[in-house]
Design brief:
heterodimer; A: mainly alpha; 0% strand; globular; B: alpha+beta
Chain lengths: 183, 385
Amino acid sequence: MRTTERDAEFTAFVAAHRPALLRAARLLAVGDESFAEDLVQTALTKAYLAWPRVRTADDPVRYTHRILTNTFLDEARRARRGREWLDADPGDGSGPASRLASVDDGARGLSDREGVIAALKRLAPQQRAVVVLRHWLDLDVETTARTLGISAGAVKSTNSRALALLRTHLADLNDDATARSTS
Amino acid sequence: MTELHELLRRASESDATPVPVRDDLARARAALRRYRMRRVATASLAVFVIGVGGAAVGPSISGVLLDRDGSVAVGPEPSRAIPTPRLVPADLEVGPYVLGRVPHDWELQAEDPVVFSPTDDSVSADPANLTGKLVVIYAVNPVGDGKKVTWQGQEFVERRRGDMATVTRETQADEPRGSLSVQYPIKAFPQALALEFAAAVHVTAAATPDRAGSSETVPDSSAYAAPVQITSTLGAPTELPAIASHKDSWLFNNGALHHEYSLAGAANADTATPEAIATDPTSPAVHPATYLTVSFNPEVGENAVIGEGKLQIPADPKFNRTRTVDINGAVGKLTTSKNGLGVIRLDWIDAAGNYHVVKVDRLQTSDGTSGLSANQILAIGRSIK
């Protein structure tokens, strides 16, 4: 296909769906706006390169969300391998190691939104991806499994553990808030 | 679950300013352009292998090399030190041009003007430095005077100066009115090859006078000089001072390799004036530096993702901004943030379709607070092997 045609279709696609991609990316990046923006930019670039496949996919939007999610998981794996940043992390929370930290020390005095983000931050990257795909994008188990390249059983068990953790963390935050308001 | 969806909805909200679609498109197009060039390079490599194999049994004429794909390299015997490039057929959209031939295994450095460079270390990695490179540019200027040369019915005018030459032709009826010039290094590129390359360039309607290459930015072609002034949106395209010495290298246990260099002179010496800093204190181009530390971590493979370079900047709230920069066709995002790092994205895809990343993780300069210009970052990123 000619570049001009690809450009026109891609531009229309980005205009229509970038906001939704960014919202999903914010959940995956647990509130780190610049990380979320990087994920979206990377996903869109990959989508453009694979545009002939994207445009003919059953659901191009879902296809691009799949790229986004896998980009996030790639980043998470890279950070876990410690191949970057662990020594050079500026310590300001801007590096992937900090972005993907599993513990949020600042979960006191949080707004509703911040509370949810703090709870999401405590989930492992794959748990977070499952929560976003299943409960934000409303994908069914089979589609989520295909997106992540894991079995349906793994999706169910990961989802179950993630929801349990979320409930616990959100309850902890509510308890903290209650304790503060009564002290 | 409805409650969870509502919580997620709130968590996904932000007041951040939306990014213009054109930035996504520019970034994606730059990646696609590199991808296509790498594919062309692979194809040309295959042709080269076939050509070498065929040479043993095929025709052999001194000074004329025939390839099975029909491309022809005509000219004097190439120097032993500088192998003659060869052209391979293509149908490549680059900026406002469609190229019907591309030089085998040369790298596309910039889009408008088109700049190809050899992939060895014989020329500058800075796209703004055109010495030794193949350059294509459209101008609204007429062809001008010079030695007339005819190539397969097309008339060109040739001009030479030093080690460089240009061949220029009038644009054709289906192209914007003006002239098309191809500048080439005489030692590396036979004239016939330059003519064949130029004859296969088509100027599209996207080439307009307000783009780079307009009459305003192309000097009188009868007096060859650096023919193009390339501007960027981020500071002046300052040449990085030569690296005077290599001070140290060390490897962190996370795999990141660091080099430290002393520069022969202060970077940004011509732009780092008190007036410039007062005018735009957030510009990385206006801070001087005399040495630099480069950290990088090449990442190759299917799991590699588009990379980022990191440019250390002052921890000052007034630096909290993002700019998208377009430097000679290489689009990047340079961000500066409070207590954060500048980021410029450098990404490309190799012939096998893998993402490659050279990570210029940090450029920390001698004054401790400054960075280099985006041009310099790109030059460094490209020069690292």
